[in-house]
Specification:
The complex is a heterodimer. Chain A contains 12 helices and 14 strands. Chain A is α/β, with parallel strands linked by helices. In chain A, the strands form 3 sheets. Chain A has a 6-stranded mixed sheet with strand order 6-7-8-3-9-10, with helices on both faces. In chain A, strands 2-1-4-5 form a 4-stranded antiparallel sheet. A 4-stranded antiparallel sheet of chain A has the order 12-13-11-14. Chain A is elongated, with a radius of gyration of 24 Å. Chain A starts with a strand and ends with a helix. In chain B, helix 2 packs across helix 6, helix 7 packs antiparallel against helix 10 and helix 10 crosses helix 11. Classes of the chains: A alpha/beta, B mainly alpha. At the A-B interface, helix 2 and helix 3 of A face helix 2 and helix 5 of B.
């Protein structure tokens, strides 16, 4: 068994609204795979089907080699999940939460103690386990949820919007722990996010999902390359950039030009070849340049390229917002 | 797994775990326990007690010279069970949709057992509350019949509470959102409470009202409690027990059925 997850034509309809539309993909063991898409794109619905709490309308999927409809219990034994909305019991302490979860997996007292110690260490939660969850910070609560998801040593760990609502610091620290779980324990991780930098930083592969369909799926750097665009930044060593800007505007291959202090940013296709041209141009016009750098475009550009829209929630059309709302309220029942 | 089909559905370990968890939560949130006892306490102290100072009159269904507080106390116990039971039933669903129960349902154990354990936990806390009300009533001067009567009253407490836990589950599965919940509570729960004979004897009512009361499960719960706790029942105990048992079977089966149906996808 080389693939942790295999999905074939997975579809989910809620009263005529297609939330997930014939999605097919496979994820190999030890991979960190991300679903990137706006709200209501079908990310959470896909995760729910894969972790057996929602039956697909059609299509099939296997998790750890087991069918998600016919072998639910087998699938459940080998997965862990952290839901989008917090599901940790705020009236209990961290340790009690973990202990109750472990009991559901029929672990005996000794094993429970051992596992809890292990996950507390893995997520640096030692010393906080006897505090009531309600008294912990948002980031710590989330870390306890991840710890709980990992308690049964799942082969596959699902994280649905793991850092939603966390501040930047808590988000960055949680990323480190997610990386650690993947690297130290070899756990396959499937996460959904609408934070571009999260997908870029954590995922080996990213599927861009829009309106229930996967519109692109590749490594983040390949997705960026596929946009065909690059960024060249030039640092000008001489006084005044106005005439340089005017000169550069003559170049037909410069798609976009941005000026900030002494730095000029050019957007172009085929940057490797263009850079040679640029050096000739600079030379012949006697422009003093202190550095030239070639950048990859941000993943945001790739997202824009594939979906034709920015990922920010407020950019969605009214129709899309309605669709997202429909799916959320139906999916709940 | 070599366990049989039945063993798979009724699985003691998750039932016990969920029950234990409910107990822990109950004991942890003291403010909530006190809060849930306040309303029945007010009814006892500010309705039952003042009424007992009114000049005694011949009321059909009340033994001559009977204290009104004695009469009303089992009704308040029934009310406690009604509210706590319905709340426990509905909260099973909310927890499944939005709370910690959701996470438990991804574990490889029988879902029915999880729900059963959670409901049993809710019922246990409801019955503990009811027993505290009995104790408060006794402290206020209600003369309890006998220790064996008290033991027998537990049977009625369990049946009443389970019936309304089932009803709570039915309401929650059929309603599906929290917003309408309070309206439904007022629309269903209050008529059940007020028309249960908690405050007045069934025998003293005109026949149309008596018929309505006879359709109400809580009437039999309250009457059973009245029979066992203070010896003032309107119906024979076996009748209370049998009718309540039927209501209990119907509401829990229907509740479990709706829940399972909603579960499908």
């Amino acid at each position: 068994m080389s693939n942790a997850i295999e999905v074939e034509g997975l579809t989910k309809e809620f009263d005529g609204v297609v939330a997930v539309d014939h999605v097919s993909f496979s994820i190999s063991q030890g991979e960190v795979f991300g679903f990137l898409g706006p709200n209501g794109a079908g990310k959470t619905t896909t995760i729910k089907m894969l972790c057996t709490i929602l039956n697909p309308s059609s299509g099939s999927a296997r998790v750890c080699g087991y069918d998600i409809v016919k072998e639910k219990d087998k699938v459940r034994e080998c997965i862990g999940i952290v839901f989008q909305d917090p599901t940790i019991d705020t009236f209990l302490t961290g340790r009690e939460n973990l202990d109750f979860h472990a009991r559901m997996y029929r672990l005996d007292k000794k094993t429970r103690e051992k596992r809890i110690t292990e996950v507390l260490e893995l997520l640096d939660l030692k010393g906080q386990e006897n505090k009531k969850i309600g008294d912990c910070s948002g980031g710590t609560q989330r870390r306890f949820e991840v710890a709980r998801g990992f308690l049964n040593r799942p082969q596959v760990l699902f994280l649905d919007e793991p850092t939603l609502g966390l501040d930047v610091w808590a988000r960055r620290s949680l990323w480190q722990y997610i990386k650690r779980i993947n690297e130290q324990e070899g756990t396959t991780i499937i996460l959904t996010t609408h934070y571009i930098e999260e997908a870029d930083y954590l995922c080996h592969r990213v599927a861009i999902i829009d309106q229930g369909r996967i519109v692109a799926m590749d490594m983040p750097q390949e997705l960026k390359r596929a946009t065909g665009l690059n960024l060249i930044s030039l640092q000008i060593a001489q006084e005044g950039t106005d005439n340089v800007v005017a000169l550069l505007r003559q170049l037909r291959w410069v798609r976009h030009l941005e000026v900030k202090d002494n730095t000029l940013k050019l957007t172009t296709d085929n940057a490797e070849e263009r850079i040679a041209e640029l050096i000739d141009f600079i030379d012949s016009h006697k422009i003093a340049v202190s550095s030239i750098k070639l950048h990859q475009p941000p993943l945001e550009d790739a997202f824009l390229h594939f979906t034709g829209k920015a990922i920010r929630e407020e950019e969605g059309s009214l129709q899309e917002l309605f669709r997202a709302w429909m799916i959320r309220s139906r999916g709940r029942r | 797994m070599q366990r049989g089909r039945f063993a798979h559905i009724i699985d003691p370990l998750p039932i016990y775990t969920m029950w234990l968890r409910e107990m822990k939560r109950f004991l942890r949130v003291k403010a909530r326990v006190v809060g849930s006892l306040l309303m029945p306490f007010f009814f006892l102290a500010f309705l039952g007690l003042p009424m007992s100072f009114m000049p005694t009159r011949e009321i059909p269904g009340m033994p001559p010279g009977a204290n009104f507080l004695d009469f009303v106390a089992p009704g308040i116990v029934g009310m406690t069970l009604l509210f706590a039971g319905t709340m426990s039933g509905t909260s099973v669903l909310w927890d499944k949709e939005f709370g910690f129960l959701k996470e438990v349902l991804v574990a490889p154990v029988s879902r029915f057992s999880i729900i059963l354990g959670r409901s049993l936990g809710g019922m246990t806390t409801a019955i503990i509350q009811a027993l505290i009300i009995v104790a408060i009533a006794a402290a206020m001067g209600v003369t309890l019949s006998s220790p064996s009567g008290l033991l027998l009253s537990l049977v009625f407490m369990i049946l009443t509470c389970a019936t309304f836990t089932g009803l709570g589950l039915i309401i929650a599965t059929k309603l599906g959102n929290i917003e309408g919940f309070m309206a439904i509570m007022n629309l269903i729960i209050f008529p059940i409470f007020l028309l249960s004979g908690a405050f007045f004897p069934v025998q003293a009512m005109p026949s149309w009202l008596r018929y309505m009361m006879c359709l109400n499960p809580l009437t039999y719960g309250v009457d059973g409690l009245r029979g066992t706790l203070v010896n003032m029942a309107a119906f024979p105990l076996w009748l209370d027990f049998t009718v309540l048992l039927v209501f209990f079977a119907a509401s829990t089966t229907l509740g479990a059925y709706f829940f399972a149906k909603m579960e499908a996808d």
